[in-house]
Amino acid sequence: MSQTSFLSPVAPSQHAFQTSFDDTAPDQPWDRGLSIQEAWSNSAPIRDNCAPPRPITEHQPSKTRSYVSLSKLLDYIQPELSRKQYRIIKNDKGLIEAYKSAGIDRVEIGRQICEWGKNSGDEAIVDISSKVGLLLQEMGKLSEPYATALEDARGHLKIIRNIEKIVQPIRDRKMRVLGNIQKLRTKQPLQSIKLAALEQELVRVEAESLVAEAQLTNLTRQNFREAFQIELTAAIERAEKEVILAKHGFRLLELLDANTVAPGQPFVPYEHGDQAHQVLSDAEANLKEYQPDDSRGKAQALSWALPPLACTSSADFHCRPVSPAAAVRSGTEKPATNLGHRPKSTELAPSLDPIFRPLPMLARRALQLRWQSLRGQVSLPNHSGVCWTTRLYSSAASEAARTQGSGRPVDGVTTGADSAGPLATGIPLPIAAKMGLRAPPPPSGQNSSASSQASQPFQRTAQIARHLNSNSDSSSAPAATMSGYTVRKVAAQNTLEHRVYIEKDGVPVSPFHDVPLYANQEQTILNMVVEIPRWTNGKLEISKEELLNPIKQDIKKGKLRFVRNCFPHKGYLWNYGAFPQTWEDPNTVHPETKAKGDNDPLDVCEIGELVGYPGQIKQVKVLGVMALLDEEETDWKVIVIDVNDPLAPKLNDVEDVERHLPGLLRATNEWFRIYKIPDGKPENQFAFTGECKNKAYAMDVIRECAEAWERLITGKTQPGSVSTTNTTVEHSPSRVPVQSLPPLPPHEELPPAKIDASIDKWFFISGASA
Known about the structure:
Blueprint lengths: L2 H5 L8 H4 L16 H6 L2 H7 L19 H8 L2 H39 L4 H19 L1 H45 L5 H62 L18 H17 L34 H6 L31 H11 L19 H13 L18 H4 L3 H7 L13 H6 L7 H8 L15 E6 L8 E6 L2 E3 L16 E7 L7 E3 L8 E3 L1 E2 L2 E2 L4 E2 L8 E4 L17 E2 L5 E4 L10 E14 L2 E10 L11 H7 L3 H11 L10 E2 L8 H19 L48 E2 L7
Helix pairs in contact: 6-7, 6-8, 7-9, 7-10, 8-9, 9-10, 9-12, 13-17
InterPro entries: AH/BAR_dom_sf, PIL1/LSP1, Pyrophosphatase, Pyrophosphatase_sf
Subcellular location: Cytoplasm
Keywords: Coiled coil, Cytoplasm, Hydrolase, Magnesium, Metal-binding
């Protein structure tokens, strides 16, 4: 596909999908209103290619024969635009492999230069060639992350292609209905009952088609932008790092003596070894200190290279979604004057957050005419940024956003007439389900068991609205927990320097060693340290190695770690944390899991409805435990619930979880099984075939880990890299007086630092439930 096809403007009176086709393309079966099955049965070229070839005799001229391949078959049955996308994605794969291969070759060349220099006999060449070879090897290693970025960008293009293929059956269905109407008009009176039914069906199909096309446009633009932002950003980073290495390479070359050597004249002694070593150190430091220039933001990263584009069309549609119902009521918007600036939108309806882009003029007018036959207006749940086929999951989130606990509509969510359900619109429930419409809630005074069962899936989702309203910002967390502990936050969240210290009555304590495991004398209620709030992605954990074990974000290769969003899950499914005064001993093999401990405090998944914050001390009830086998280590996951949760009185064992929260344990198992796959790691495995053991078994595991911690804190087990410094454990040789501790940094209430937009990307894992 040529570059101009990406940049060519879309006519305001046409739909984005229609203008994407090549006008010169031959007539395709789906252009004649045929389904994919009909297109297959009527596809003569495929039958011809599948027929056995005739034998060539000496009297017959040789003919070129073609046979059916997978790629050719895809070319016949895919929509035209999807075919072009398939070719782009296929070529991208070859390009990625070429970059990886070129990087490997470059590393090998650098290594060979080092080997060659060692045998040259020239002291200067020996030193300089070894260092230039190392720089070339570093240049070669840059190809791997660049190829990984290209693979990531290719994934976004795959999403566009897959959605295009999903929308095609809706187009086929619309063409079939139109064809049936045309046939009936030639055979039956215009007022026939069957024709009227088809007209009503056409209204519903057109509504569904408009929704699908609008979301296709949304997701196409979004994923196209993200794909090439990733690719271009990676290209800039790779080029800038290569420039850094090349400049230091020139510095090394300048250390070579440029004077010629006469025959028989001894070599001038090489005296630049220290300088060459310093050049290599400088190159290493520059690479470690390299930071991409994000000061301008991604949307304006290339503003220095591109002049602002003025909008000359009054039908310029911004990247603002709008629902079909609202699109009928809304007028045209003021066009933007710069790609990097979007004016505030006009108010479309009270409390209505647009969720689709404005439809093109002709489509909007057609919808307005057809909509008159429906009783009421259609409301669609917010699928912004999520594939339109994920209706049930997105509908739940949308329903929660509508309720916000108090029943008051959330700003930016469809309400009133806009929230009419499928029954109010006259759309049959099967069609409504495909469009993502929800059934209307029962009247407030209705208390029948049927209505309560119908609304049961949404009873516990008001928490989503509370979480979304906080924008996942734990900086607004209260300074003191219910148990009297306070948190001291240092630096901004999402930074390498961020720490969360725990204090008790103003005295710093270790969440690993000083917070007691049990919260009551009967040892039925336990203390849990929250590390990661629900629905967040930052991988926060108690730092075993640092003094007083503050909570910090895990780091790998100098970068902060985040868990990926494996569809349909968003971040962590629970408040994730650890039990204090527990330790999974890496020196002990568990008799049933046949694996050693993971050298961490015992992990906890708190399934209550309230979202916690890092450093919070929750009192919880134990319900069950799963045994994850993570890289050949036993990693227990204890299932608990906050004692203050409304469901806590009803949940006493693992069977109660399945009864009152059906599907949660299955989702937990799946999440732990697949969450590392987007990072290129294999699936995790479980002991006990993934079964969640009951409360009695879980309490035994907790007691075993508490005994292991006891051996660690008393010095009976060598701590290794684990810091056992504490201020309250009297029988511990690592206890220190508070006065001898270094002063902690002051408490800071700072907004979280911005994170890369790729953290919010969905990953669709084969075999995961949707």
